[in-house]
Amino acid sequence: MRLQCLVLALCLGVGVLAGGKYSRDVNEPKRSGSDEQTVEFRVAKLNQVWEKAKRMQLSPVRQAELHSDLKIQEKDELQWKKMKVDGLDENGEKEAQLRRNFNVILAKYGMDGKRDVRSLESNSLKDHETKDGDAFDDPRLDKLWNKAQNSGKFTSEELQSLKREFQHHKDKIHEYNILMDTVSRTEEIHKNVISPLEGDAKEPVLQQKHTELKEKMRSLNHGFERLRKISHEGFCEDSEFREPRVIELWEAAKRSNLSTDELDSLKEELRHFETKVEKHNHYQEQLELSHQKLRHVESLGDEEHIKRNQEKYNTLAEKTREMGYKMKKHLQDLANKISRQGLQHNEL
């Protein structure tokens, strides 16, 4: 009897150890390959994208940006898995949104398997030919930018700030076109659905996609109108913010019927966020400089010197990725907060 108890205890002990190991395997980054490299993400397809990106030789800053985008996607996908277990995404809206976001990431970094022929021009000016002086691949943006540059209304520092706003708007147009392309392809699939019941189930998802497209177009129109006004009139002396993403959030907040107290509170939060964005921008600049220095040192062939600079570069790259993720997560939280509070006021 005592022998049986001992055997049972040993079995239970092994089971507990195995269970602990299983939990760690699930929650900790795994290692793969003969060199035991740490896997970056807990979602397999995101790891595949990251490994492909490393072979593409993206610039250090762009690679760090991709890493941050994938970390945000990972966070959202893991949250969705919990939602699905709890039965909170019955119509598949969240799943469809995650798929769209993933497709946007692939297209944004040229990893969607097709040559990027999405032009950034407006629908009314598709015959526009890019000239050497064009900075933003869009005739309306280029015209505004040239006018601002030659107006004499801006200091060199203000022109740099304005250029960042123009570049941000260009990126938003690109993402809108990617999303529109994704929705168009989804609609083609939707038309070919055989089962009427399946088609009815997908209808809310398509409606949600069209709503998202309309919101992005509205945001683009507001953004362009702001650029047009600044290009004609110059910056206001009482401009609240300098960073394009912060400005966009603040403009959205002012349109969302928030109370004066809520706007004051949000303004303070946006100031802290802007400091975070500027710090991240600084780290991106340092990362690019560090990469240039590393390439120079490698050309000299001093192994010890190369090793030191590689370690510095790796540390800086890791810090830049981490800051990028925190900044984008904060941006996501602020956008959701403004949208949610504005909706609540509209309902009242």
Automatic annotation (TrEMBL):
Keywords: Signal
Domain named Alpha-2-macroglobulin receptor-associated protein: residues: 18-116
Residues annotated as transmembrane: none
GO cellular component: cis-Golgi network; endoplasmic reticulum-Golgi intermediate compartment; endosome; plasma membrane; rough endoplasmic reticulum lumen
SUPFAM superfamilies: RAP domain-like
Coiled coil stretches, renumbered: none
Signal peptide coordinates: 1-18
GO BP annotations listed: negative regulation of receptor internalization; negative regulation of very-low-density lipoprotein particle clearance
Keyword Lyase found: no
A single GO molecular function term of this UniProt record: receptor antagonist activity
Occurrences of domain Alpha-2-macroglobulin RAP C-terminal (ranges): 136-348
Alphabetical list of Pfam families matching this protein: Alpha-2-MRAP_C, Alpha-2-MRAP_N
Cited PANTHER family: ALPHA-2-MACROGLOBULIN RECEPTOR-ASSOCIATED PROTEIN
Protein name: Low density lipoprotein receptor-related protein associated protein 1
